[in-house]
Protein 1
Amino acid sequence: MTTIISFAEGEANLDWIKLTDALAAGHDLPKAEISDSFLYRGKDTLLQRQAWIDGMGIGVKSATVFPGNPAQGVPMIHGGVTLYDDAHGILEALIDFHLVTKWKTAGDSLLAARRLARPDSRKILIVGAGTVGRNLHAAYSAAFPDAQFTVWNRTQANAEAMAEEIEGIAVANDLETAVGEADIITSATMSTEPTLRGDWLQPGQHVDLIGAYRPDMREIDNTALTRARLFVDSYDTTLDHIGEMKIPLAEGVISRDDIVADYYSLADFTRQSDDEITLFKNGGGAHLDLMTSRFILDQFKGA
C-alpha cells in the first residue's frame, strides 16, 4: 500500500541533524543516476527531476510552475515526489513537494556547514528574507544553538518582517558591515549579479551559497572564489549548470582543480585551519531529493 505524506504529517517527525547524517550516508552508496526533463505550455512548465540510487531506490520529483496562478489566488508551484522501492520498483510513497524541497535545500547546506564552519561559530548572517532564508534559520539553529542570527534583504521591510516573525533575529542595515561581523554567511537570493564581495570576507568564515540555480545567476564575485577553498554538493549539478561556478570556470578565474570536493568525497570536507575561508555552493539535484524523501519516509514509519 502506498504511503501518502502531507507536509504537516511528515514534518512532525523530522530532525535537521538526523537528516544531514542521512545525506552523508546516502553518499556512501553507489553514485546516483540523475536526469531532469521539462515540458512547456506557453509560460507554464512541468519540471521532473529523477534519481536512481542502487541500494536506496528511485525518486521522481515533479513540479508544475504556473506563473499566472497568483493573480487568480492560487499558488504558483505545485508538485509531489514519488518514491519507488529498490528491490522491485514498487511505488512506496507520495510525499508533499514543498516538504521535500524545504528539508533537502536547507539540509544540503547544513551538512557542509557541519563539516566546514568553525564549531565555535556564533554569528550567522542570512542574506535573503524569503522562505528559504526562514528555513535556513531553522536548520542552522539545530547545529549552532547558541548562534546570534542577523538577516539582510535588499528590501529592508522584508527583513524586518522576518525578524518580527522569528524571535531573536536582528536586521542588518549595511551588508558589508554584516558580512564582516559574521562567522557564517548563508545566502539565498535571486541575484544575477554578485551581491557578496570577496573583499568583505574575513579569515575563518564559512560562506554558504544557495540562491543561484541558472547559468546566468551569481551571488558572489570572483575575488571571493580566489580567496576561499571551494566545495560543492555535486560536480554534476553545479560546475556546468550554475553561473556561480560555470561563469568563473569559463573565464579562467578558477579551474576545476580548485574545487576541493563534492559530497561523494565527503571525507575531504575539512577545514585546514581556523583562519581559512571556506565556500560551499549548494546546487541541489534529484539524488538529494531522493535521499531526503527516503529519510522522510523512514522517519514517518518510525525507522
Note: The radius of gyration is 19 Å.
Protein 2
Amino acid sequence: MAKEYDVVILGGGTGGYVAAIRASQLGLKTAIVEKNKLGGTCLHAGCIPTKALLRSAEVYAQTKKALDFGIEVEGITFDFSRVQERKALVVDQLYKGVQHLMKKGKIDVYEGFGRILGPSIFSPMPGTISVEMQDGSENEMLIPKNVILATGSRPRHLPGLKVDGEKVFTSDEFLTIEELPKSVVIIGGGVIGVEWASMLTDFDVEVTILELGDLLLPTEDVAISEEMYKQLTKRGVKVHFNIELDPAAIEVSEQVTIPLKDSTVEAQALLLSVGRVANTENIGIENTEIELEKGAVLVNECYQTKESHIYAIGDVIGGMQLAHVASHEGIQAVEHIAGELSIPMHYANIARGVYSHPEVASVGLTEAEARSHGYQVKTATFPFKAIGKAIVYGEPEGFVKVIADELSNDVVGVHLIGPHATDLISEAALGIFLNASPWEVGQMVHLHPSLSEIMGEVALAIDGKAIHF
C-alpha cells in the first residue's frame, strides 16, 4: 500500500537527515530513504572517520615530542588496529545519535534504494518514490508532495586504473585498511590529499604527492598553499607539481610504479584524491524534467529543480561539497517548502577547513579573487609565533592573513594556517557575515592568553596598529 508524505528525502547523509529534522520541526510528515546507513559519507566514510584517524596521528606525533615539554616517554609506538577500533567507536556513537534524532522527530526511515517514478497511477506528476528494500521485501511506494534529492557523491576514479582496495585506493577503501603500507603515493594535492598526506606521515608512512597543478590546496590563498608545502616537506612529504599523468601507464604489482616525465615514483600503495562525482545515476532522473550540468543537478536559489516540487541539496548539486553546506541547503529547501522566510546562502561567506597539521581554515575571497572582483585590496598577515598561547602549545608555525577593501574597509577574506585554525575561523566568518570592518574586530577585547588573540592582532595590523609584532 502506498504511503503519503509531505516530504520524502532521498539520501540520509548530513544534508538529508538535517533536512528531515527541520521538516519534522515544521510539522511536515517526513521520510528518509537511505541505501546504506544514516549519516552518509560524512559520518561513515568522510569527515568523522578521517578526523578520528587524524586525531590519533596527531597524538602519536605529539607524544614523540614529549621531551620538548619535559615529559620522558620511552619506546613510543602505535597499534593501528586500536586506532581503527577507536575510529569505529566514534562513528558508532554518532550514528546512534542520528538514529535517536530520527525517532525523536518521528521521521520514517526506509532502508533501501529509492528511485523517482514518472507520472503513474500514484500521481499525475513525477515524484513517487519506489523503494527497493534492503531486506528483500516488496518495494515500498511513497507518494510525497515534495522530494529532496540528497544522494551525495563518491570518489572520482581515473579511467584505465582499477581501484582494487589492495594496492590502489580511494579514501573509501583506505579508511578500512587493517595495516598501514610503508609508502604511499597520493594523486591529488587538494583538501583530501593533503589531509591524508599529513595523517600518513605522522604515522611514519613515506608519502609522495603528485599534483597536476603548481600548488597544493589550489583553491586556497597562494600564501596558505605555499606555507602548507613548506610545512609538509619539512616533515618529509615529497611533492611533485605539474605532473603529466597517464593512468594506463601506471604499473600495479608488488609495488605501484608511476612513470613521470623526468622520473619514476614507486610506493606500496596508491591513493586517488582527484575529486568527487555526484550520485545521479539510477535514481530516476530520466523520468523527470530535471536537468544536469557536468553531472550535477541544476537548481535555482531555493534548491528547486526544473520540477518545482523536487529539490536537490548537497554534493549532488556540485558546489562546495561540504557537510555543513549541505546541512544548511537542506534547511533552506525545507523552509521554502513550508513557506518560511530564510536568509539566502552566500557561499563566499561560508568557512572551509583542512584538518591537516597544520590546520588550514578560510572564509571569503583569496587575494587573487578579491583583485579579480575589482576590490582595491589591502592585506595584512600576523604570525602565530607572536601569540603567547601558540608558544605555550609548542606550535608557533603559521599565520593569519586578512584581506580588506581599501574603499569600504570591509573584510572580504580571512585565511589561517596554524594551530586550531578550524576552530578560530568562525570569528572571522561571523565578522564577514555582519559586515565588520578590521577596526571593529580589532576593538574587541580577546581573552589572554588565547590563540584567538591572533584575530584581533591581524585586524589591527591591516592599519599598521598591531601590538605584538
Note: The longest helix spans residues 80-104.
Protein 3
Amino acid sequence: MACWRHLFTVLTPTYNRAHTLERVYHSLREQSFQDFEWVVVDDGSTDHTRDLIQAWQAEASFPIRYVWQTNQHKKTAFNNGVRQARGEWLVAIDSDDELDPNALYQMASVWDQISPAQRHRYVAITGLCARPDGQIVGDMYPQDVMDITSLDMTFRHHVRGEKFGCLRTDVLRQFPFPEDIPGFVPESLVWRAIARAGYLTRFVNQVFRVYHDSADSLSRQGRSSDGARHALGLWLLAYDTVECCLPWLRYQPMTFLAAAARYTRFSLHLRRRHVTRPTGRRLTHLLSRCLVACMWPIGAGLFVRDCFSIGAAGRTML
C-alpha cells in the first residue's frame, strides 16, 4: 500500500499558459483545506512559466513541484503528473481555471462520509462546475448524492456538461492515457475504462470548479467542427461507444446511432490522411457492426461535408 504525503495532489499540465496560471495559483492560496501539493507539469513551454513557478515556490504556504518535459501532449503530461503525485487523491485542473475556495475541504468531507469498509469500491468524488457568474455548467445530478459508475450517470441518467472532482491516484496509475496514440485522446475513454472495471463514483451537487472557457482548450478542440484534425481520437471514442458500451444501448439508442455515424465519418478521415487505425480495435459484436452499417450513409455524408468545409476554409485563407 502506498504511503501518501498529502491527501490531495493538485495537478496542472500546462503549455505556454503563464498568462493564465496565476488564476490557478490564487485559487489554491485561498483554499480552506491545506493538506495538498501542487504539481505543475510543463509540456515544453517557451514562455516564462518556469520563472513564474519558481517565484511562487518561494512564497507559497503549500509545496509546489515543477516538472518540465519536452513538448509532447497534454495526455503525456497528465500521465507524468500522476506518476509524480504524492497525494492519495488527484485533482486535475487546467491552467486557465480555478477551484472554489472550499473545493478541497468539501471533497475531503464527502470522502469522510463513505464507510472505510466500502472505500475500495470508489474511484472518484465528482461535483459540478460553475461559470464566474455562478451559473452551473451543464446538468445537475438527479439526486444530491449518488453512488454509481460514470457510465451509468452518462447513459442512464443523461447528465451532460462539464463536471469536476478528484480521483484516486493509485487507480489512475492503473489506467494511464494511451501515449502510443498521437494527438488528442478524449478523457472520457479513460473514465469509461475505469467504470467498466467496476469502480463507483460518488456524485454530489456541489460546485468544485469555476470554469473559464477558452478557444484553445483541448476539450473545446474535441468539440470543434474541424473533426478531421482530431479524427483518430474521435474515432476511438465512437468505437468505444458502439463496441464497448452496448450494455447501455437501451437507455440512449439515439446516442449510439450518432456514434455509429461518427465511426464511419472519422474512419474516412483517417483513410484520407493515410492514418492507420490502432491494432486490436475492431467491431466484434454483430450489433456493433449492424449499427455502423445502418448509419454508414449518414457518416459518409458528414465526411463529405467536412471535406467541403475544409476546402472552403483553405480557399478563404488564400
Note: The chain has two domains: 6-218, 224-317.
Protein 4
Amino acid sequence: MSKGTVYNIQRMSTKDGPGIRTTVFLKGCPLRCLWCSNPESQSFAPQLLFFQDLCTGCGACEKVCPAGAVRMENGVSLLDREKCLSCGACAPACPTKAREMSGRVMSVDEVIAVVRKDALFYENSGGGVTFGGGEPTAAGEFFLDLAEASLYEGWHVTVDTCGFCPEERFDKALKLADLFLFDCKHMDPARHRELTGQDNALILRNMGAALESGKEVRIRMPLMPGLNDSDENLEAMAQFFGRYGRSEIEIMPCHAFGKSKYQALGKPLPPVEQYTPEALREVRERFRRHGLSTVVV
C-alpha cells in the first residue's frame, strides 16, 4: 500500500462532518492562501516548529542537533533555519515541547489502524472518517488508497477540499466519498490567484462536478474582511450556485488561531484582521440580500 505524510490525526472530532469522526490531516497544499491558519499544512515535507515562549534554555536541543542549527546565547536557544534539516532530533530531547515536528510518513495500514480504534463511535453516532489537510487530494494515490480502505471498512467518508485537484483524480474521489466540504474562496480568477497563488478554473470545474454528482456537498467559505466579502463576489457566488439550486453557505470568519504556528515556523504573520461582531452581522446581511443564507461553522 502507498505511503504519505500525515501531520495530525484528530480523534473524537465533531465539526468535520456528521456524528463522531476521526479527521486525518494530510500534509501539503497547492494553494498559498493569504489567511491560512495552518501554515504547517502547506509543505509536503515534515517541518520543525519552534515555540520560543515555551523554551526554558536548558540546552538539550543544542547537544543533539546533528547540523549545528541550534546555539545557546545568554541562556536562550536560537534556531538557524538555514542549517536546520528538520530531522526532528531535537523534538524528543526538549522537556517543555518547545520543539515539535509536524509531519510523519505513514502507510495506509498505519492510518487505518488509528482510525479503526473509534469504529464503535462511528457506528453509534453516524460518524466516520474525514480527510483534510493541507489539501487531501494533493496526496494523490495515498489519499485515494485511504478513501478506498475506509470505504472497505464501511465508514462514512468525508473529504474537506479546496477543489484544486486534477480532474481524473477528483472524479475518482467522487466515487469514494459520501460528503464533500468544499471551499469557495473567490469567484474571480485573477483575484483568486492573488489571494491563493492559483486561479479557480479547475476548482470551479470540480465544484460543478461535485454538485452534479448526487453526493452531499456543503459549500464553505473562509470569510476574510476586505479580501473576499465584496458585493461583487457575493453576487457572483449567488449566480454560480443558483445554477445548481444551492443558496446556503457555511462561513468560516477570519480568526488569529494560527498566529503562534507562523511564529514557530519563522514565517511572517498573514495580513488579515478579524471581524467585529457588528461587522460580521453586516456581512451576513449582505449575503442575505444576494439570496444566500449563511451558517457560521
Note: The radius of gyration is 21 Å.
